[in-house]
Amino acid sequence: MVEQSLRLPHVGVRERVERSVFLSQLLLAAATLLLVAVTVAKDASMFVEPLYFLGVMVIFATTGLAAAVPWRRLPKIWIIVLPLLDIVGLTLAREAQPQLGVSFLLVFPVIWLSTHFGQAGAAGSVIFASVLLWAGLPLKLLTDPNNATGYATSQAPLLAVVTIMLAFVASVTYTTNRRALAQRVLLTQQAGLFEAALQRSRRQEQTLDEIFNTVDFGVVGYDSDGRVNFVNRAQRSMLTRFGVSDGIGLATIVYKEDGVTPFDGPDRPTQRAIRGETVDRVTVWLGSPDQPQAAVLVSARPIHDHTGRYDGGVIVTRDVTAEVRAVQARDDLVASVSHELRTPLTSILGYLELALDDETIDPDTRRMLEIASKNSDRLLEIVSGLLTAASESKEGLALTVAPCDLSAIITEAVESAEPLAAQRGIRFELAELAPITVTADAFRLRQVIDNIFSNAIKYNVESGKVSVEVLEVSCGIEVRVADTGRGMSEDEQGNLFDRFYRADSVRGSSVHGTGLGLSISRDIMREHGGDLRLESTKGKGTTAIATLPVNRG
């Protein structure tokens, strides 16, 4: 199996056989020609020695044979004829002129046979050459018995050295060639593996290119130096509409959510991404404000290599113009409808209050008027919330900040909420609070606290509890409101701050709401430099956590 694998490289190189055979023979012919030149220069009479001349002619004739025969078309075994003829020719020349050192040229055919015919060639070449060399001694004994003893005495040690030398050369050549062939097989196998891996990589790259060019959102890849190295078809198409030259992949001028204020260079989402930052769902506008624009949602993630070193990243963009326009249209509709409803509702409430002030009405009529007044109040509250949401989405929150006592705001909110809580047997737990002065919009803070308390009551269980704590933390003041209600799942918590969102678990219940309170409350807290978050466990309750810096900018 090993011998077979070592010969595999020869199978595919038959077209080079002729060239290899000729060059191997030409090398010996050149050495022989040099030897002849030295012989003629030293003593021309040596060249006319019949055996010497015959040996040289055999080598030159073999060279001509190597050049003339199409060895590529013959079985490889026929090539062995050439080095064997060389051994014969060199042995004849050496027998005629032993003092010239012709025997050392035998290394050429020995190397040839050891290289091309493996172990058999190495052993056979040494045996064949040794037999021919040592055959000269008995031949001398028969042809010149008088000088045979002296000749044998002088030549035997030299022949022994030559035989050992040829055996050593054959062994080293065979071993070296075997190792080289093994390395060649290994390199061929590794090259095959690398080629297969390269083909797989190319197929994967092609597949990814096709996938990225099929999707309807933009994908931009960049390296650690910020150079763009991939832009998919959707991204190129979107940028072409706004005059960005193909190949850049990123717009150099984008506008903030208002569509008018340009992003400063370092603050652009794409620049943040190139610096290695993570960008989550940032909306930018492409196109000049005085021309048609497109809203684009930008997200980006950095990529790190196996050592953790920053190695570029990917930017994903999506055209959300239709969604943004739809939200704007919805807000406009909500604002318009709410405004139209507010005036008649106010009038209805006014007349209901006047009717209730009449002490002459009978109890049944009063009860019906109180129900109508209560529902009208609720409807007015809903309309006011819708108007507030629509106004904030267009103009943002307007705060009127001044020093105020947060403890007093919370205490007043608890007192206002307790009557509603008492109807369901819910009690408030609030320790006595020391005055806490903050710079904020007191009206807006009260709006947030009222909304949190309202939710804690609406979504609590009968005879439940609402605990209120005010804590000093590293970032400022933390107001924690915990209820013992139904709680929420993780999926529900993920959408709580989306406008108009109501969880499936309460949508079909008797608990009413618009899904705007938490969104508006969080916006208010963030405008103050704080935040609002919820922690909830299904079946155990919810904790609302409002944070507020002590000193506002």
From TrEMBL:
GO molecular function: phosphorelay sensor kinase activity
Listed GO CC annotations: plasma membrane
Catalytic activity: ATP + protein L-histidine = ADP + protein N-phospho-L-histidine
Lineage: Bacteria, Bacillati, Actinomycetota, Actinomycetes, Micrococcales
Keywords tagged on the record: Kinase, Membrane, Phosphoprotein, Transferase, Transmembrane, Transmembrane helix, Two-component regulatory system
PANTHER family with a match to the protein in the record: HISTIDINE KINASE 1, TWO-COMPONENT HISTIDINE KINASE
Protein name (database record): histidine kinase
Subcellular location: Cell membrane
Domain Histidine kinase residue range list: 336-552
Transmembrane segments: 20-39, 51-71, 77-93, 105-135, 155-174
Pfam family name, one: HisKA
Organism from which the protein derives: Cryobacterium zongtaii
Superkingdom, taxonomy of origin: Bacteria
InterPro entries, sorted: HATPase_C_sf (IPR036890), HATPase_dom (IPR003594), His_kinase_dom (IPR005467), HisK_dim/P_dom (IPR003661), HisK_dim/P_sf (IPR036097), PAS-like_dom_sf (IPR035965), PAS_4 (IPR013656), Sensor_HK_Regulatory (IPR050736)
EC number: 2.7.13.3
